[in-house]
Amino acid sequence: MIYILAALLPPLGLLLNGQPISALFNLLLLVVCVFLGLIFQPLWLLPSAHAIIAVSMKREQRRHRDIVEAIERHGPPPGWQP
Prior knowledge:
Blueprint: H1 2-8, H2 10-16, H3 20-36, H4 46-74
Helix pairs in contact: 1-2, 1-4, 2-3, 2-4, 3-4
């Protein structure tokens, strides 16, 4: 659901995903791309692409952090040899 929001309303999607600095950058990018998009229309897709990639990277970072915390809490998986 956050990916759809990031595609349709990029700054709001980033803000709700817990990335306020990226949301501000995306808002600035959105304003610039709207004006330049009048000349070169594919630029309108740039803020949405930025938001989707940023949301994806943040979710991957959270997943990685959860795995590391689980390993620290419970130890390595059975059969693991250094």
